[in-house]
Design brief:
With 205 residues, the chain is α+β, with helices and mostly antiparallel strands. The protein contains five helices and six strands.
């Protein structure tokens, strides 16, 4: 089990990030302009965490709090639209547990984190094949239309793996942050998929 600890800058959001997922961001706040430019220059990731309380945009006197688990974000595309406006596309990396937070330079939160291990190999049980098939159809249709770059996921597409399929639905489902964080922290990818599938079934009902 990977128990390495690290100290990383944090980007709190009302919606989070799962491993391998894509996250587009428009950056305009001075604190995050500095953060993203530094990460791009140094080729280092930052941590995305869900907000428990508080707002995404900095408000004087606001004291946000965060959920205890998050995901690394690696910058995959970086575009400077204006000197004070960046557009970036990030991809989810390792999951982590947030152990401690401090407010750093420019008001950017810093986190002491412990990394969680990557999902083990967990082949998709037959009863969940329709979920993978639906993702596969979406990918195929986008590719046929020449719109593969607009998908919220990038290859390789691990449609035969519980963790990858579970994460794609976990990103898309409308669920409370508490629920999504519970899915993110779940070490068993098959159990995560079962939880996600049960939520999807309840929403249909």
């Amino acid at each position: 089990m990977d128990t390495r600890s690290d100290h990383i800058p944090l980007f709190p959001l009302s919606h989070g990030l799962f491993p391998d997922g894509l996250l587009p961001l428009n950056i305009f706040e001075p604190r995050y302009l500095d953060l993203i430019k530094r990460c791009q220059r140094e080729q280092t990731p930052f941590g995305v965490v869900w907000l428990r309380e508080g707002r995404e945009v900095q408000v004087p006197g606001d004291a946000p709090s965060f959920f205890d688990f998050g995901c690394l974000a690696h910058i995959r595309r970086y575009t400077e639209l204006q000197p004070a406006l960046l557009q970036v596309l990030c991809q989810g990396g390792m999951r982590f547990e947030l152990l401690q937070t401090t407010r750093g330079p420019y008001g950017v939160w810093q986190g002491e984190v412990k990394y969680l291990p990557a999902d083990p190999d967990a082949p998709l049980p037959p009863q969940f094949q329709p979920l993978a098939d639906r993702l596969g159809q979406t990918i195929a249709q986008a590719q046929v239309r020449g719109m593969g770059q607009r998908l919220p996921w990038s290859p390789p597409y691990h449609l035969d793996q519980c963790g990858w399929v579970a994460n794609r639905y976990a990103e898309a489902l409308l669920a409370e942050p508490e629920t999504k964080v519970a899915w993110l922290r779940e070490p068993d990818p098959e159990w995560r998929l079962r939880q996600v599938a049960a939520t999807l079934e309840n929403l249909r009902g």
